[in-house]
Amino acid sequence: MIIEPRTRGFICLTAHPTGCEQNVVDQIAYVKSKGKINGAKKVLVIGSSTGFGLASRISSAFGSDASTIGVFFDKPSTPGRTGSAGYYNTAAFEKHAHKAGLYAKSINGDAFSNEIKRKTLDMIKEDLGQVDLVIYSLASPVRTHPDTGTRYKSVLKPIGGVFSNKTVDFHTGDVTEISINPAEGDDIANTVAVMGGEDWKMWMDALKSENLLAEGATTVAYSYIGPSLTEAVYRKGTIGAAKDDLEATAFTISDALKSIGGKAYVSVNKALVTQASSAIPVIPLYISLLYKIMKAKGIHEGCIEQIQRLYSERLFNGKEMLLDDNGRIRIDDWEMREDVQEEVAKLWETASTENLFDIGDLEGYSNDFFNLFGFKVDGVDYNADVNEMVEIPSEN
């Protein structure tokens, strides 16, 4: 079939298997071009099919020749209907990992559930014995608690008052004012239940209790802080409350790992176009301005560049870990440079529908969005007939 992008707001309803594979191939090539890293050799990535999780799996496998198990929750293809981008990404990753002689298996299911945890623990036990790195990169809007059965839904809301500011429809370039009502009732608690640290700790407790963590094992979860422009709706909003909980959980997990010499970290990453970030008002406009500035300065990074640098310069550089005052890894350091943020703030004041294409990188934002789903990828013939039916090797 000929596959074209069909969008609804910040969601693309279709994905292109050839484009997704080319994306994975390009990320593999980048990691290989940077040379080998003396990193972890047995890696579990929870949330492994897109964005930072996928980049982590690629960086582990092709940067350190690691055996990897990926846990993800994505829709497979059916005749006449495409699978999700994450499904195609995972199929492509496994294909190329196996071609390179690397162990790679994947588990498709709800990572919050006890069933998927059990399945993953059994796979580690049977195939790897132990893991020495656990990446936690889930970005789900809902969570069913595995013990109580309560279903929680996260919300994107400020705390304490209405938030009003500019945003952009990245499909049209229209810059408008948006107002978001504040959190109420159980909004904060529900968002923390979905996006906070409880599930990360459940995973680490389960792995440790069954002796599946190697001596000195490390676990890393991903977070974001961002500038003052976005903090009311992000870092000081409901999501920020969840991130605070996630970051506090790192210390709790580290305490639990002391007996094996292990450590838990939160890495604060750069603002990038992901399915999650596209849903947050204000963020697309901020990113389009940020991209323009960082590209001009030669310091722009995508997910794979961020994670490769995290691995090579922080996690596995053989030196003492550089942390901020709150114990976090700051791989958002280039984004948060004073000169970068000053320029973003200046552009923000004047940003409008009329000038955004000149002062921002809306085209770069849009391209990155469609790239997430395998569209607008260099080297792909989108007029060619493509088989939407793709299988993940380890599922057969």
User: From the 3D coordinates, which CATH architecture would you assign?
Assistant: 3-Layer(aba) Sandwich
Largest sheet geometry: 7 strands, parallel
Mean pLDDT: 95
Number of domains: 1
Taking Cα atoms only, what radius of gyration do you get, to the nearest Å?
Answer: 20 Å
Shape: globular
CATH homologous group name = NAD(P)-binding Rossmann-like Domain
Which structural category do the helix and sheet elements fall into? alpha/beta
Keywords:
about 400 residues; alpha/beta; Rossmann fold; seven-stranded parallel sheet; two-stranded antiparallel ribbon; 12 helices; globular
Description:
- There is one protein chain.
- Helix content is 39%, strand content 16%.
- With 396 residues, it is an alpha/beta fold.
- Strands 5-4-3-6-11-12-13 form a 7-stranded parallel β-sheet, with helices on both faces. A two-stranded antiparallel ribbon has the order 1-2. Strands 7-8 form a two-stranded antiparallel sheet.
- Helix 2 links the parallel strand 3 (42-46) and strand 4 (67-72).
- Helix 2 crosses helix 9 and helix 8 (283-296) packs across helix 12 (362-371).
